[in-house]
Write a structure and sequence with these properties.
The chain has two helices and three strands, in the order H-E-E-E-H. It is of the alpha+beta class.
């Protein structure tokens, strides 16, 4: 993800409606961690702050290959690919079976 967040914060991102918002005006996405998550550098009295990931759609044309690197585009693609296996999971990234790694095999299949 194109952010300055720690791995634990990325892993705690939620897909709940108020925690994952796509902005049609600028193409960005705003993300927020699951309720109750406390980051390593966060005081318990502080609420988690949402963060915004900008889209490359405004800077790249339809013919520009760099548009394929857009993090918002990739996130939408990921969400569509995992929809059938998500079930009731609320975390953005689904763990792989037998490990805590984020679900990247759907995006980048091996072999």
């Amino acid at each position: 993800m194109a952010s300055s967040k720690r791995r634990s914060e990325i892993h705690a991102l939620s897909i709940e409606e108020s925690h994952l918002r796509f902005d049609s005006s600028d193409g960005s996405v705003t993300l927020l961690c699951q309720p109750g998550f406390l980051a390593k550098n966060q005081l318990p009295s502080m609420a988690s702050k949402p963060f915004k990931v900008p889209s490359l759609s405004r800077t790249c044309g339809n013919e520009d290959e760099d548009r394929l690197l857009c993090p918002v585009r990739s996130l939408k693609f990921y969400l569509s690919r995992v929809k059938s296996i998500r079930g009731s999971r609320k975390r953005l990234f689904i763990p792989l079976t037998g490990g805590g790694a984020m679900c990247l095999r759907l995006l980048f299949p091996v072999g």
